[in-house]
Amino acid sequence: MSVKNTFGSIKGWSSVGALCALGLLAGPPAGAAGSGPGFDDPDNWPQYHRSHNAWRFSPLTQIDKRNVGRLRVAWVHQPGVITHGLQATPIVVDGVLYSIAADNNVFALDAATGRILWRYTPKLDPIVKEVFYGSASRGVTVGRGKVFIGTLDGRFVALDQKTGKQLWSTQLSDLKNEYGALFSSPPQLAGDILFGGTTGGDQPTIGKIFAVRADTGERAWTFEVPRDDPKSWPGNSRKKGGGSAWLPGTYDPGSDTIYIGTSNAAPDFNREDRLGDNLYTATLLALDPRTGKVKWHRQEVPNDTWDFDAAYEALLVPDGRGGTSLVHLNKNGFVYVMNPADGAIRNVWQYTENMNWAKGVDPKTGLPIDPVHPETGKQKLHCPNLLGARSWNHGAYNPNTKLWYSHGMEVCNTVTSARQGEVPGIGMLSLGLSEITLVNPPGKKADGWLGAFDPLTGKQAWKVRFELPPLSSALATAGGLVFTGDMRGQLYAFDADNGKELWRFNAGSGVRGGPISYAVNGKQYIVIPTGLGSHAPGFLTGAFPQIRDLPGGAALIAFTVD
């Protein structure tokens, strides 16, 4: 079956020395916690995850457990369009906040006041009104004097960082002939290379990762995710195999390596025409940034038939022995701990509470044990659901507590697999099913949570339950706090050590974006993007019908203490 963009109906949106003296830093400079971009100036939030290791951790301490209850609103920015809410993680460099709203509208704001410094509104190809994954974007990238975006009509665009003037634009994806494969996430920098992947995992096309020269927009290389191998992709299945890399990758300057994960194969729930391992779908890739060649790969779900992407963030965390481990959550409900040099498995641990798609994952090989695939014409219950044990909202790691804070959802789905016919238009998906409904786990009530874990072993420190699965990313700070938001619009600060709620604020609309922290003129701020959006809430209405009544919105809210 081909699925059109009609899931859900939610009101207002479519169916997601001196620093220490000022009390801003805990102990030594932030460089003590790591190296590379993102650690140089603790006042900034200079890239998507703040640092190349994907920690989403701020070393600032002015806002801490003692005073977080006194947080007040410093300013509010409303971009003016609420379609799909706000899903971005803002960037802050030298007192200027850069963010993106619906339809690729980019803003530069005074990070202390919220005053608009410049705005960029692109002229988009009208074809974007026809695509499935339209309107929303997850952020911008700042560097080399430029602000970079990936557009809804398939381009990388560079803007002047000071003025917002467009410097170059490079067309990379052909939406008309590639079923609306577009950029919903910001491309990332690897030196002078700008790289990123498109949507397309659920569409009958070849998912791609693109790279251009950051200074000029000149094409550098293109990586096709479905591998050209008849054993992996029999017949013509590769040409409709999906496999996009739709979330931002990371670049580790120490090893000169791009880490980027790929999506499921298409059609999602029917494998009759693709009975192979379907490389490189559902795979974490380590790429050479200059050539795009594979250094190593770890396919976490061979022949994926559950929509279990491997597109989520790749954390680099201390392994306790003076080295580093790579930690990667898959939608399938398992966390893979690897050697970042070669992808060798060090451990695999179960993240979700409800899992029946396989008997488990072998902690030595990383391969599924006795997976249970959908069967054509038969309804089956699979846990976790197609949105994953966690949606794409990112976790955060605190090097002081050595804990990883991440959300989860305990939701299953019933699926009836079906042969996929021709997909009639670019606004449709290639799911390979006749029915899908999100439901409660057997004998339980569906819900969500925020948990704190040892990322290497999975040992749980604490867990907070939510009636509705949170779709916000997490923020950890050296002040001993974890910030997040829920689908109802409640914003929270929790004690990083024990999960005790220390602060709450009603924002009016749910959270889908990424909270950040930064400082301007000696004052620390917390900024949380609010406004519920993305397709995930629409899918979730099967298990949570009350989501239909939640209001939309779009506002950046900045908080500080006096």
Automatic annotation (TrEMBL):
Cofactor dependence: pyrroloquinoline quinone
Residue ranges of the region described as Disordered: 225-247
Molecular function per GO: oxidoreductase activity
Leader peptide range in chain numbering: 1-32
Name of a matching Pfam family: PQQ
Database matches in SUPFAM superfamilies: Quinoprotein alcohol dehydrogenase-like
Gene3D superfamilies per UniProt: Quinoprotein alcohol dehydrogenase-like superfamily
Keyword annotations: Oxidoreductase, Signal
Top-rank lineage group of the source organism: Bacteria
Domain Pyrrolo-quinoline quinone repeat: 45-344, 447-515
Family: Belongs to the bacterial PQQ dehydrogenase family.
Protein name: PQQ-binding-like beta-propeller repeat protein
Native source organism of the sequence: Azohydromonas caseinilytica
Lineage start: Bacteria, Pseudomonadati, Pseudomonadota, Betaproteobacteria, Burkholderiales
